[in-house]
Specification:
The chain has about 160 residues and is of the alpha+beta class. About 50% of the residues lie in helices and about 20% in strands. The chain folds into two domains: about 60 residues, Alpha-Beta Plaits (2-Layer Sandwich), CATH 3.30.70; about 70 residues, Alpha-Beta Plaits. The longest helix has 21 residues. It is elongated, with a radius of gyration of 23 Å.
């Protein structure tokens, strides 16, 4: 086994171990302080690439995470999460518990509102990105609006020709 990484914080080590496990890479954790993660010689390159490509998530795992916004359902939350992650902002989703006795309405794309969480060091950047997206929705839906406008013009032309 070859030493892949030595972690000061166990939270960071656990994130990497979860990523390695998901990819089917065998590893060995040595519970010293700090935590050492060993992988086989054969898996070392793959494990190193997983660690390198998830560096921000691993580093952020030892930080406190904060909710930057709330989505009404899981589908909307996934869209927001994708948007933030495309800007290299680590993101987690957390369902908000529905109080006992509240009605649950099925068929609306998700059952529960979701909080979108980011590490403390990314809060300001995430909020700024979300505010920019909310202030300029036409940039995100520009193509769809152009299609609707074209469709409307075509319909108007057809109506005039019929008259």
């Amino acid at each position: 086994m070859k030493l892949l990484k030595l972690f000061k914080y166990k939270e960071q080590a656990h994130v990497l171990m979860d990523l390695l496990h998901d990819k089917g890479i065998r590893f060995e954790e040595r519970k010293l302080s700090p935590v050492e993660i060993f992988v086989s010689e054969d898996d070392f390159e793959s494990a190193f690439e997983i660690m390198r490509s998830n560096e921000r998530l691993i580093e952020a795992s030892s930080e406190k995470w904060y909710a930057v916004t709330t989505a009404p359902d899981e589908i909307t939350a996934q869209i927001i999460k994708s948007s933030l992650e495309s800007e290299n902002i680590p993101t987690l989703l957390k369902g908000i518990a529905i109080p006992y006795g509240e009605p649950i309405i099925f068929g609306q794309g998700g059952l529960v509102p979701m909080e979108i969480l980011v590490p403390g060091s990314y809060v300001q950047t995430a909020k700024a990105l979300l505010e920019t997206s909310a202030a300029h929705p036409e940039e995100q839906n520009g193509e769809a609006r152009e299609e609707n406008r074209t469709h409307t013009i075509e319909e108007d032309t057809e109506k005039k020709e019929e008259e």
